[in-house]
Structure formats: structure tokens, C-alpha cells
């Protein structure tokens, strides 16, 4: 498009002469169009307005800057060459505006060299379109970058009506909308394919006879497009010829409607094809063959670049021209394309080398490459270099367009198949993971149930055995005491020694049974947690322990105002065992001392019981809590080896932790926590 004459005026509203619109939907997008050419502004304005956008028009940089600060818009189309501004600088200013960082921005320029394009993209443009441009491509690309479909604002089925008669299009709209359908329209087959690619309607109604491509061709092309082939199509015609009906159905139409019939037939057949249409797989939708496409042409021949570009723009592609392989690779690194057309210049070795380099890059190697040459002899060499197709120059532009469409269609079909395979594999892996997790949960539940049953049996057995052992032990102990106390028949020294050993062993056995019963009680039963005065409870336990010490002088100290969240009976077991231990292991110390205290944050304190007694060998603290484990001999310090195991079990039941610190001969400290029940 050429630039307008000096003095062309832009507007912050639709140009004069634009038909007045009725109430506009609140969800319509707004596009800012900045170009000093009145022709370009009007061309883009009409294209965007026809697609449902509002438009704001600016003729120079000053008007654009005013719009940046004073207008709302979702898309900005900026000309790079303006009489009073540089479009790249305007882009920087736009990106610097608060809230404009993510505005979709398209640069439009006759400066279409690769270096200019890369400069614009690296500055922050979402798209760069060279002039001459295709207005349909610009609109479709903007819609694609927005990532939204304003025609799907509710759950209504969308129907695309393609007919060159505006009267018939409106007649179908008046028929369908009261029935709950959302209707969009297109005036030609080419526009209809682009609209279908952009909107992805649930159904298409297309006229059989139209200028350009007819309805049968529209349906054939949709059936060849991976993204559109499942959309049901109704074909309408004024013909009464049965052969025409068969021809249309064979072209891929789902239903055939004659315009002479009552329009109620359209509603009935539309409902039928929607009811029986194949359900879409819930996969990510692939790109459409008729959506906005970008083709990269590579040749050093400027004349041939122009010829290739003109041939491809007729199909609505945005054509990017690169003169060297280096420029092509630089552009591909910054922006993907749908197809690459390489022209054989001279011997063709340079083009084949470019093809090899493109195919070696993992990110772009799947892009189809078509090589264009003058002779059939080059075909095998080009395919061997990695090209996907070869076209003779003499075959003309229509052949090139057909090959480009075919390669893009093939690439999209392969991508769709790969995506479906990957999705199915992912779903199978997810299903396998769910099955494995379910089986694991069931196995774990069974094991937990069995473990709980065995624990109950073990506890019952332990309690029964402990209770049953008490009676015989009491009998043994009583008879031993009686024998030792008898004066009528004095015992020899050897017999007395043996009876004393029996009495002592019975006593140790009774202590062990009592310890096992305490451990069993600590391991089962419901926790009755409440806030405890730990200071008072500690003094009670100390009083009971001190009474059993037979007058030993032990210096006790307890921190004031200690509280804890726990089961009072079980917390008492903790204190009794740890204080008893402390007193026992200070038995050989001249000035025994036992301290009960706490440290750390008030909402999660660590309690401790510290003594200055015998301690334990460094590095063996973990052994203390194992059942029946002893780090000192029974002759040194008697005991059952169950007390600390019981303490460990009670602390764990409260969700806390316990550990010990000490050194042989230098006392020990037992730390434990009782977290609040959350």
C-alpha cells in the first residue's frame, strides 16, 4: 500500500461516512491503527470492523501518543515510517506505559528486510508484517495473538453462514438466532475459510455457487484441514438436479438443502448434523491450514523474491523475504514460520547447504522446506539435502501455492497425530499412575488393618501374660521371704545366698512386668489432651520420687510458669521416668542436682530434664530408646530397659520429638517437645 498524500487526517473515532452502529457489545475488542496513509487506515479499519473490532485511527505520532494515554485499546497496529515519528520508538513508548506491557502490537512497514523485522521483534513487537500486506492476515493474526473468541461468550452453538448474497445471509441469521444459535457470516468462499479457521464454528452453512471458489471447494478444503475437517457442513443450492446433490455429498457435505425448500428444513437438518457430529477429542486444537500463515522465501535474486512473494500473498500468507541463508536462520531463531521456500540460484549448492543447516536445528527442523528450481534434474539432489518438496519454476505460481498448502497440511496432520499420541500416552500414564496409587492405597490399608489387628492381639497377649505372671511371681517372692525370715531352721550360708537370689530375681521380674504394662497403656487408648500446669505436675512427681529415695539429698529446680498441651496421665509417665532416671544416675555423685526447664519460642517450647550424674557414652544417644537397651550394667544402675522406650512412645503419640545429650561421667539432658494439637 502506498502512503497517503501530506495532510491526510487520522481520527480517534471511525472515519466520517461510517454507518452508525447500534449498541455495541461490551466485550468487543478495540484496535489502534497508526499509519500516515489514508488508504491503509481505511483498508484496515474496514477489515477490523467487519471482524467485530472497534477501531481508533491515527495519522501520525502525535495522535498515537495522545491515544496511548487517553484511549482504551487491546491491539495496536503501528506503521514503522511516520512523518513525525519512528514506529519502533512508538512501540517502546507504548510498552513503557503502565498497563500496556501486554498490549498486542503489530508493526506494519514497507521496510521488510530481515534486519528491520528482527529489530522490530526484538524491541517487543508481537508481529511484523511487511507491505504490501493482506488485511485478512493482519486481522486474523491479531485475533490469534489475543487468544480469545468474542463469539463464544456463552454456551450457544456458533454457525458460520457463507453466501455471496447479503439478503440470504441476513435471512438465515434471522432464522437461526431466535433458535439459540450464534451466527457469523462471510461473503465469499475464501473469506469463509479464513473465518472458519479463526472462529472454529460448530457448523457451517455454505452456498453451492459463489464467485471465486464454490461451496463444494470450500467443503473439500475444510475436509483436508486437520483443524476443520470434523465441522459439519450444510451445502445450499438453487439446483434441482439429483446429480448435483450426489456431487455435493461426495465433496464432503453432511447435508444438502435446496433454497426452494422451506427454511424450516435448514433448522431440522442443522439440528440433525449437530446431534450426530463426531465428538471432538479434548486435545489442544491444531492450527488451521486457512488461518494466518507465514512463509519464508530465501533467494539472492531480488526479482525472484518478488515473484515468489506475489504468488503466495494471493493465498493470504504473510511472506517474509530473506536474501541469504544467514538472514533466514536469524529470522527463524526469532520467529517461527509455517513453510520455507528456497530458490536454487546458480548451481544450487548454496540453497542445498541452507536446507541442510535448517534441518539440523532441532527447533525448526520440522518446518517444511520447498525448493524451487528450473530443471527436473535437481529434484533428487534437493530431496537428498533434506527438502520436503521440489517445484519447477516453469509450473507457475498456482503449482507453488498448491505445494505450499500441501506441505503445511501434511505438517499439521503430523503434528495433530503426534499431539494425539502424546495426549493418549499421557492419559494412559496418568491412568496407570492412578491404578498404581489405588492399588498401593488398598495394599497399605490392608497392611494397616492387619498391623492394627496384630497390635491389638499383641497388646492383649502382653496384658494377659503380664497379669498372669504377677500371681506366680508374688507366690515365689512370698515363699522366698518366708524362708529367709524363718528362725526355726537356720539356713546355711549357701542356701541363704540362693534364696536371696531367687527373691531378687522375682522382684526384678515383677518390675519388668509392671514396666511392660505401663508401656502397653502408653501405646493405646485415646489421648485426652488439655492445657497442663507442667510446673505443678513436675513438683508432684518430684515429691513422689524423693519420698522413695530414702533421705538422699538431691537439689531439684523447676522452671516457673511452664505449661504444656497433652494427656495428663501420659505426661506424668514422661516426668516420672525421666526424673527417676536422673535420680538413679546421680546416685554416685556427691552433690546430685536435677533440673526441669524449657527453652525456645513460647508457642512451641522444648522441655528438658538435666542431671549431673553418670551420663552415657558419647555417640550412643540413639540406643537409649530401644526396648531393653542398657548402656550401663545392672550392677552399676539397676533397671528394666523399658522406661525410656515408654517415654519415647508417649512423646511420639503427642506428635513430638525426644533426644538426649550427654557425655560419660558428665551428666545427661533429655529434650522433648509436646506440640499443641492442631
Automatic annotation (TrEMBL):
It holds the Pfam family HATPase_c. Residues 30-146, 158-274, 294-408 form the Response regulatory domain. Keywords: Kinase, Phosphoprotein, Transferase, Two-component regulatory system. Its EC number is 2.7.13.3. It catalyses: ATP + protein L-histidine = ADP + protein N-phospho-L-histidine. Its main location: membrane. One of its GO terms (cellular component) is plasma membrane. Residues 13-24 have a biased composition (Low complexity). It comes from the Bacteria. The modification 4-aspartylphosphate is found at residues 79, 207. It is found in: Cell membrane. Residues 1-28 are annotated as: Disordered. InterPro entries: BphY/WalK/GraS-like, CheY-like_superfamily, HATPase_C_sf, HATPase_dom, His_kinase_dom, HisK_dim/P_dom, HisK_dim/P_sf, Sig_transdc_His_kin-like_C. It is an enzyme of class 2 (transferase). Residues 464-678 form the Histidine kinase domain. GO terms for biological process: osmosensory signaling via phosphorelay pathway. GO terms for molecular function: phosphorelay response regulator activity; phosphorelay sensor kinase activity; protein kinase activator activity. This is Sensor-like histidine kinase SenX3.
Amino acid at each position: 500500500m502506498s502512503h497517503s498524500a501530506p495532510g491526510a487526517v487520522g481520527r480517534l473515532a471511525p472515519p466520517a461516512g461510517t454507518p452508525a452502529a447500534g449498541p455495541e457489545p461490551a466485550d468487543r475488542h478495540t484496535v489502534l491503527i497508526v499509519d500516515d496513509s489514508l488508504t491503509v487506515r481505511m483498508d484496515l479499519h474496514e477489515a477490523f470492523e467487519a471482524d467485530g473490532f472497534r477501531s481508533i485511527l491515527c495519522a501520525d505520532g502525535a495522535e498515537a501518543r495522545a491515544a496511548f494515554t487517553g484511549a482504551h485499546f487491546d491491539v495496536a497496529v503501528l506503521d514503522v515510517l511516520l512523518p513525525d515519528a519512528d514506529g519502533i520508538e512508538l512501540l517502546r513508548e507504548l510498552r513503557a506505559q503502565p498497563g500496556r506491557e501486554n498490549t498486542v502490537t503489530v508493526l506494519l512497514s514497507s521496510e521488510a528486510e530481515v534486519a528491520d523485522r528482527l529489530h522490530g521483534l526484538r524491541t517487543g513487537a508481537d508481529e511484523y508484517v511487511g507491505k504490501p500486506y493482506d488485511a485478512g492476515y493482519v486481522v486474523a493474526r491479531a485475533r490469534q495473538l489475543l487468544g480469545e473468541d468474542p463469539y463464544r461468550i456463552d454456551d450457544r452453538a456458533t454457525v458460520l453462514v457463507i453466501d455471496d448474497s447479503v439478503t440470504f445471509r441476513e435471512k438465515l441469521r434471522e432464522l437461526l438466532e431466535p433458535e439459540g444459535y450464534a451466527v457469523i457470516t462471510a461473503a465469499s468462499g475464501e473469506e469463509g475459510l479464513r473465518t472458519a479457521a479463526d472462529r472454529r464454528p460448530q457448523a457451517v452453512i455454505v452456498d453451492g455457487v459463489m464467485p471465486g471458489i464454490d461451496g463444494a471447494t470450500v467443503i473439500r478444503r475444510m475436509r483436508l484441514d486437520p483443524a476443520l475437517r470434523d465441522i459439519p457442513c450444510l451445502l445450499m443450492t438453487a439446483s434441482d438436479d439429483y446429480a448435483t446433490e450426489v456431487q455435493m455429498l461426495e465433496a464432503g457435505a453432511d447435508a444438502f438443502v435446496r433454497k426452494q425448500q422451506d427454511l424450516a428444513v435448514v433448522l431440522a437438518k442443522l439440528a440433525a448434523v449437530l446431534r450426530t457430529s463426531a465428538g471432538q477429542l479434548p486435545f489442544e486444537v491444531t492450527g488451521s491450514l486457512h488461518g494466518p500463515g507465514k512463509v519464508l522465501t530465501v533467494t539472492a535474486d531480488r526479482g525472484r523474491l518478488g515473484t515468489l512473494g506475489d504468488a503466495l500473498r494471493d493465498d493470504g500468507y504473510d511472506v517474509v523475504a530473506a536474501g541469504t541463508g544467514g538472514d533466514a536462520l536469524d529470522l527463524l531463531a526469532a520467529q517461527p514460520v509455517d513453510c520455507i521456500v528456497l530458490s536454487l540460484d546458480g548451481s544450487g549448492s548454496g540453497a542445498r547447504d541452507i536446507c541442510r543447516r535448517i534441518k539440523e536445528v532441532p527447533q525448526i527442523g520440522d518446518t517444511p522446506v520447498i525448493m524451487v528450481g528450473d530443471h527436473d534434474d535437481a529434484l533428487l539432489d534437493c530431496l537428498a539435502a533434506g527438502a520436503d518438496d521440489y517445484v519447477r519454476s516453469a509450473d507457475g505460481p498456482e503449482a507453488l501455492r498448491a505445494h505450499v498448502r500441501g506441505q503445511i497440511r501434511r505438517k499439521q496432520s503430523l503434528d495433530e497425530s503426534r499431539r494425539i499420541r502424546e495426549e493418549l500416552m499421557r492419559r494412559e500414564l496418568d491412568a496407570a499412575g492412578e491404578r498404581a496409587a489405588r492399588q498401593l492405597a488398598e495394599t497399605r490399608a490392608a497392611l494397616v488393618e492387619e498391623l492394627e489387628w496384630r497390635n491389638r492381639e499383641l497388646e492383649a497377649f502382653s496384658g494377659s501374660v503380664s497379669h498372669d505372671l504377677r500371681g506366680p511371681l508374688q507366690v515365689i517372692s512370698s515363699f522366698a521371704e518366708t524362708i529367709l525370715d524363718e528362725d526355726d531352721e537356720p539356713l546355711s550360708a549357701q542356701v541363704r545366698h540362693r534364696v536371696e537370689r531367687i527373691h531378687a530375681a522375682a522382684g526384678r521380674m515383677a518390675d519388668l512386668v509392671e514396666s511392660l504394662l505401663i508401656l502397653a497403656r502408653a501405646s493405646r487408648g485415646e489421648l485426652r489432651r488439655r492445657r497442663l500446669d507442667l510446673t505443678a505436675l513436675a513438683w508432684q512427681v518430684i515429691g513422689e520420687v524423693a519420698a522413695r529415695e530414702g533421705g538422699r539429698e538431691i537439689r531439684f529446680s523447676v522452671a516457673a510458669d511452664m505449661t504444656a498441651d497433652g494427656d495428663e496421665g501420659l505426661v506424668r509417665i514422661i516426668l516420672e521416668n525421666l526424673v527417676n532416671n536422673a535420680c538413679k544416675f546421680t546416685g554416685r555423685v556427691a552433690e546430685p542436682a536435677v533440673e526441669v526447664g524449657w527453652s525456645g519460642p513460647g508457642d512451641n517450647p522444648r522441655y528438658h530434664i538435666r542431671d549431673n550424674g553418670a551420663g552415657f557414652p558419647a555417640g550412643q544417644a540413639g540406643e537409649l530408646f530401644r526396648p531393653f537397651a542398657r548402656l550401663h550394667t545392672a550392677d552399676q544402675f539397676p533397671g528394666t530397659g523399658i522406661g525410656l522406650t515408654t517415654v519415647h512412645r508417649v512423646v511420639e503419640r503427642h506428635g513430638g520429638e525426644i533426644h538426649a545429650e550427654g557425655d560419660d561421667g558428665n551428666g545427661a539432658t533429655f529434650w522433648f517437645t509436646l506440640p499443641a494439637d492442631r
